[in-house]
Amino acid sequence: MLQVSLPHFLVVGALLFALGLVTVSTRRNAVGVLMGVELLLNAANVNFVAFNRYVIGDVSGQVFGLFVIVLAAAEAAVGLAIVLAIFQTFKTIDVREADLMRE
Amino acid sequence: MKSNLGKLAVWVVASALVIGFLVVMSGRALLPAVDANPPPAAGAAGLPDLLFYALAALTVGGAAGVALSRNILWSAIGLLFALLGVGGLYVMLSADFLAIAQLLIYIGGVLTLILFAVMLTNRIADVNVSNVSAGLYGGVLIFVAVVPVLLTVALVTPWNIGALPAVAYTTEPLGNALLTRWILPFEVASLILLATLIGAIVIARKEIKAD
Lengths: 103, 211
Fold this sequence. Notes:
Mean pLDDT of chain B: 79
Helix content of chain A: over 70%
Shape of chain A: elongated
Strand content of chain A: under 5%
Shape of chain B: extended
Oligomer: heterodimer
Distance between the termini of chain B: 50 Å
Number of helices of chain B: 7
Largest sheet of chain B: none
Largest interface: A-B, 71 and 89 residues
Order of helices and strands of chain A: HHH
Number of strands of chain B: 0
Low-confidence stretches of chain B: 31-36
Number of strands of chain A: 0
Radius of gyration of chain B: 23 Å
Order of helices and strands of chain B: HHHHHHH
Radius of gyration of chain A: 17 Å
Distance between the termini of chain A: 62 Å
Structural class of chain A: mainly alpha
C-alpha cells in the first residue's frame, strides 16, 4: 500500500514554488525569468492535481490543471516573442537593460 | 555604495522580521497541531514510495538546477528534468492524460521554444556569462522566507483526505467534463490561444517599413 500521501506532494509543490520564485527574482536573463515562471506554474499544477486526487475525487482539478498548461504555453509563446523583440531593440536580454521607459 | 548599504540594511531588517515571525508562528501553531495528520499505516516502504521519492528528487533537483546554474543551457536541461519529474508525479496521481499533455506541450513545445530563444538571443561562444544571477543573498533570503511557511501549511493543516478512488483512466471523464461543465472556459481558452498566436507573430516579426 502506498504510504505517500497528500502532504508529500504538497512539499514537492512548495519546494518547486520556492525555487521558481528564486529564479524569477534573481535571474538577469529574460529567458531565465520565463523558466522560473514555468516552474511556478508547475508547482501550482502539482497542488491542483494532488488535491484533486486526495480531496475531491473528481476530475475538476485535472481540468484546471489542463487550463494551466494551455495558458502556460500561451504565456511562453508571447513572453519569448517579447524577449526576441527586446533583443532586436537592445541587443541584449538582460532585464536591467530594458529601461527605456524609465528615463 | 550608499544604495548598496541601504539595500543590505533593508534585507537584514526583512530577514529578521521573517525569522521572528517564523519563530512566533512555529511556537504557537506547530506544537499543538503537529499530529493533525495521522501518520499512515506503518510498513516497509514499497516500490511506489521509492518511485515517488525518485521523482520528487528529479523534480526538485531539476528546479534547483534552473535556479542556480550559471549557464543558461544547463538551466534549460534542469527545466527538462523538472518537467519530466512533474509528469511522473501526475502519473502517480492517476492523471494520465495530464501527464501526456505535460510531455507534449511542456517538453515538446515550451521547452523547445525556450531553447530556440536561448539559441537566438545568446552568443553561444560566451555562454558561461550568459546567465549571471543578481543578488544571491536576496535569492537565499526569499527561499528561507518562503519554504518554511509553505512547508508548515502543507504538513500541519488537517487535510480532509477522503477514501482514495481507484486508479482509472481519466481521458474520458476529462473530455466529458471539458465539453459539458467547463465548456465556456474551454472556448475562452481556444480564443486566448488564437490571440496568442497572432500576438506572438505581430510582436516577434521584423518591422517592414513601407517606403
